[in-house]
């Protein structure tokens, strides 16, 4: 099982909370604070799961990161969890359209996040 988790989140305090939540059971947690570097890290690290914010600084947002991952055959299979404050039905539909596996709105339950990540990692064995 690939226990590499990549957190792409621009807010340091939220990134820290997510990293602390996922820092157990041998997970290797990596961080990025924007979509551009996050996309490069997905290609370099080949994470088991990506936890991806939608609204970020830089030239691409989370939806665009997800679209680009799904369009790249080498990394298209990477499970992506959108983790965002944008909880409108239209945002959730956009997340599904661009290919995210799960869509969690902030504030999120750390236990729910762990359950989702573990389920996605089990599927990807």
Automatic annotation (TrEMBL):
<dbReference type="Pfam" id="PF00072">
    <property type="entry name" value="Response_reg"/>
</dbReference>
<dbReference type="InterPro" id="IPR011006">
    <property type="entry name" value="CheY-like_superfamily"/>
</dbReference>
<keyword id="KW-0597">Phosphoprotein</keyword>
<dbReference type="InterPro" id="IPR001789">
    <property type="entry name" value="Sig_transdc_resp-reg_receiver"/>
</dbReference>
<dbReference type="InterPro" id="IPR050595">
    <property type="entry name" value="Bact_response_regulator"/>
</dbReference>
<feature type="modified residue" description="4-aspartylphosphate">
    <location>
        <position position="53"/>
    </location>
</feature>
<protein>
    <submittedName>
        <fullName>CheY-like response regulator receiver protein</fullName>
    </submittedName>
</protein>
<feature type="domain" description="Response regulatory">
    <location>
        <begin position="4"/>
        <end position="121"/>
    </location>
</feature>
<dbReference type="GO" id="GO:0000160">
    <property type="term" value="P:phosphorelay signal transduction system"/>
</dbReference>
């Amino acid at each position: 099982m690939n226990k590499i988790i990549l957190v792409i989140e621009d807010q340091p305090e939220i990134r820290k909370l997510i990293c602390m939540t996922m820092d157990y059971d041998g997970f290797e947690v990596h961080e990025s604070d924007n979509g551009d570097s996050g996309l490069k890290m997905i290609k370099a690290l080949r994470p088991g799961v990506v936890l991806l914010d939608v609204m970020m600084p830089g030239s691409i947002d989370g939806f665009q990161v997800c679209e680009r991952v799904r369009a790249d055959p080498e990394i298209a299979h990477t499970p992506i969890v959108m983790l965002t404050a944008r909880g409108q039905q239209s945002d959730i539909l956009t997340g599904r359209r661009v290919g995210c596996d799960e869509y969690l709105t902030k504030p999120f339950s750390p236990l729910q996040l762990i359950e989702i990540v573990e389920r996605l990692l089990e599927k990807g064995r």
